[in-house]
Amino acid sequence: MKKEFHSKGTYVRLLCYLKPYWRRVIVILLLSIISAFVAVLPIQILGIAVDEIRMADRHANRNVETTHALSLPAQKANMSGDEPVLKKKYSIPVAKPLLKMSGYIHNHWFLEYNYIMVTLVFLASGFLVLHAISSCISLAHGYITSELGQRLVYDMRNQLYGHIQRFPLSYFENNKTGDIMSRIMNDVNSLEQAIVGPVITFITDMFKFFWIIYFCMKLDWQLTSIVLFVCPFISLCTYSFGKRIRRIFRSLREKTGDLNALIQDNISGIRVIAGFAKETEELERFKHKNYENYFLHVRILRLVNTLRPAVDLITETGAVAVICLGGYKVLQGQLSAGTFVIFFPYLQMMYGPITGLTRFYNQVQRAIASTERVFEALDTPVELQDAPDALPLPVVQGFVEFKHVHFMYGKDKEVLTDINITACPGQMIAFVGPSGSGKTTLTKLLPRFYDPVKGDIFIDGYNIKNVTLHSLRKQMAMVLQETFLFNDTVRTNIAYARSDASDKDVEYAAKAANAHDFIMQLPNGYYSIIGERGVKLSGGQKQRIAIARAILANPRILILDEATSSVDTETEQLIQNAIYRLIKNRTTFIIAHRLSTILHADRIVVLENGRIVEAGLHQELLANNGLYKKLFEMQFDTQEKIKPKPETETGEDMKNPEPVIDIEELRQTMEW
Ligand SMILES: Nc1ncnc2c1ncn2[C@@H]1O[C@H](COP(=O)(O)OP(=O)(O)OP(=O)(O)O)[C@@H](O)[C@H]1O
């Protein structure tokens, strides 16, 4: 299923996730432009202040020399700034309007104060106001951007999870759970890292870059040229490092998926590990995988940490060149001190976008490595889809037919060959046969977990391929060999099939499943949390919860897969009674290795190597003298024969009898 992706295509596809939020994108872009413009201005104010102070200084020095030669009014005029002694040359672009404004303020409101002081206070206030504006914009910008980023992650994660849920079972059989989780959790995050953060920063940076170049060119084109000359070296350096980082990052993602899979596997199988005292080996295995992760992380960090000083070295070289040439120009009177001073912050601001540009490239490439894994999952076809003209299956009676059904997993060999079975409503059909004969596979075809490769299955005359999956599965319930319960309350687990069930419904279902009594002994009764996969319950208790769940679902068709294979005789009796109630009036397909549990089946189908070799009633099959008889005798010899007892006798025979419940009575009480 591996597919080749192209970075550009992947990126364009990623950008499409922004489509529903285009208004927000425009707002973010506008804020980016404004913030880029505003960010440049405070530095200019700094430069103007330096020039003003310097000019005042020179002016004062000159006054000391000439005070005695000037009349008092002339001195006042000088200090008031009405008639500047030195002719001002505005090398900084915003200097002229700002100084005019400060002159106006001084002349109209603060004439008695020193002109330079008024100008400095005015410039400092301007500096503060611009910073405040810049901070407000950054705040709004950051708020909207991060919200949008998380929104995209939310959307994509929903989409991926929804898609993965509809995958054929084979996908989950062939892929590690930890890896699937890693795609849903870690890789999806890359959407934010690939689009929102870098793209927005990139756009803002580009605006800033050209805006600063424009200013710097106006200030001094020669110094600007030095800065621009250094830029390609920075790009080259970060690009080559980035390429290596990206390659390592791709392996890191895979290794993280492997590590997740190992953790998931080991935590689920912790009892097996403890049971076989394999903790030390498992720790070693974990250490090995963890070391691979650690090693790749370290390699990435090493590269990143080398990159930073390398870039710094290049930028510092540029700065030194600017200091030499700039200093020379100041001494020559070709450049004001203020301009020289502000050139350095601008220099940093100019290099910022250049390193940012390559960082952007690296970030995007790294994120694309993750995104490709997400798209790979999203592009995996949902094999079992509703037919285009599929109709909902109406409420059925439960007449089931398998007609010439063949099936194979993959393309290796047929697991089921020419299966023909007919089940009338309310009948119990039992599948018997040696291990690996295809019993479980046969029951998986009914809810369409897999489709036959040949032949068809009908329910009440409807071909199950032509009805919607949802309506088909709604009419069935399964009690499987491995009972799966959610880490939630007993109540939630029982009501899983019918979320609208009342407490009364749940309780009646539990009583019918012989589960009520043990539930009441749990610390919080029906509201007790049963742990992951129901670890706080015994095998028999879990099965009874599963039966209660099936009873509450009230399906027309039931699939029972060796529901009593792992419990003691006493519990089996309880479970058997629960099952008898459950299967009454439903078409039931049951797989049981203990043949004693299916002696009363309406039809016993005997499978061998995926073929039906015998079918009929228990007595007929015994008389046949075939495989069934052989299996039956083998069991008779090796295990105690367990006869199903009528419900009325059950309670008396047991050490800890549970109340026997009449299902008909229950049915009348419950509003089903
Ligand atoms: N997901 C799968 N992918 C590939 N082969 C499979 C898969 N599941 C089962 N098989 C193979 O299909 C054959 C039938 O398996 P199935 O589980 O249906 O047998 P079974 O009769 O239910 O066995 P048992 O009684 O031991 O549970 C076996 O050879 C098995 O190895």
Automatic annotation (TrEMBL):
Origin species: Kuenenia stuttgartiensis
Keyword field: ATP-binding, Membrane, Nucleotide-binding, Transmembrane, Transmembrane helix, Transport
Keyword Coiled coil: no
SUPFAM superfamilies: ABC transporter transmembrane region, P-loop containing nucleoside triphosphate hydrolases
Designated name of the protein: ABC transporter ATP-binding protein
Pfam families: ABC_membrane, ABC_tran
GO molecular function, one term: ABC-type oligopeptide transporter activity
Membrane-traversing stretches: 21-45, 113-133, 194-215, 221-242
Location(s), subcellular: Cell membrane
Sequence ranges assigned to domain ABC transmembrane type-1 in this UniProt record: 26-366
Main location per the UniProt record: membrane
Gene3D superfamilies recorded: ABC transporter type 1, transmembrane domain (1.20.1560.10), P-loop containing nucleotide triphosphate hydrolases (3.40.50.300)
UniProt keyword Nucleotide-binding present: yes
GO cellular component terms, semicolon-separated: plasma membrane
Source domain of life: Bacteria
Membrane topology reported for the UniProt record: Multi-pass membrane protein
Domain ABC transporter, first and last residues per copy: 400-634
